[in-house]
Write a structure and sequence with these properties.
Layout (H helix, E strand, L loop, with lengths): L1 H18 L11 H23 L6 H20 L3 H19 L1 H10 L3
Helix pairs in contact: 1-2, 2-3, 3-4
Keywords: Membrane, Transmembrane, Transmembrane helix
Length: 115
């Protein structure tokens, strides 16, 4: 839930910044469009976290996908020399995957899953 909430809050920050007239001359993207992407992706992760917190099986898939995407982002951060950003990003993703795939979590999900 924290990762999703952080992304949604960052989307709000982007909307406010864009509404105040901030424009990066070197940027080829819209602040509103980027904010919309953050709302969509991180909102889904936030919803999945809420579902998991309430005991629903549904939230595991989107969260696993998000953690794998974060690992890819961390890889590109490492490649670009931004170790100060890549290390925490990779750690968050690895911890998230570890929590989702530890034996107790897998057992819990298996007992919740009804086909």
């Amino acid at each position: 839930m924290l990762e999703g909430l952080a992304g949604v809050l960052f989307g709000i920050f982007l909307v406010i910044r864009e509404a105040q007239g901030f424009h990066d001359p070197g940027a080829k993207i819209s602040g509103y469009g980027t904010a919309l992407w953050f709302f969509f992706v991180c909102g889904a992760v936030l919803a999945a976290g809420v579902f998991l917190y309430r005991g629903s099986f549904w939230g595991r898939g989107p969260i696993v996908f998000f953690q794998l995407c974060l690992l890819g982002v961390a890889y590109y951060m490492f490649r670009s020399g931004a170790l100060h950003l890549g290390v925490p990003t990779a750690l968050f993703a690895i911890v998230g995957l570890g929590l989702l795939f530890n034996p107790r979590s897998v057992d819990w999900a298996a007992t919740r899953h009804k086909i």
